[in-house]
Design the sequence.
């Protein structure tokens, strides 16, 4: 499965960014799609995931600010990020899972989102 992200960039604190991702190359339906992020000097961590059936999970740090959505027919997933904070600065990775509900089987190359104070 190949995943290609778009939509990163530079934004001031309090601003918004929308990340998008399209998946291709899967021979079976993708169960879960999501987003992970890796801040400088830190490990890659979960941000949000969404199952094919519509169940969503968010890390506590982004609840109420970020919204994940997906289109099963188009194999796309998006992350609307509002009220961004400098701590949200990271490389954001699109991810997909065939059997897992945590979308950890495949990752894209990442897109950088930088939030200035």
Sequence:
């Amino acid at each position: 499965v190949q995943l290609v992200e778009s939509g990163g960039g530079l934004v001031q604190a309090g601003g918004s960014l929308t990340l998008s991702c399209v998946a291709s190359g899967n021979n079976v339906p993708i169960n879960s799609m999501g987003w992970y992020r890796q801040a400088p000097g830190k490990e890659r961590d979960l941000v949000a995931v969404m199952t094919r059936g519509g169940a969503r999970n968010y890390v506590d740090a982004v609840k109420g600010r970020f919204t994940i959505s997906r289109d099963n027919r188009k194999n796309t997933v998006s992350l609307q990020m509002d009220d961004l904070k400098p701590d949200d600065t990271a490389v954001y990775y699109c991810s997909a899972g065939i059997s897992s509900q945590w979308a950890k089987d495949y990752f894209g190359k990442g897109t950088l989102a930088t939030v200035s104070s």
Summary: The first strand starts at residue 2 and ends at 6.
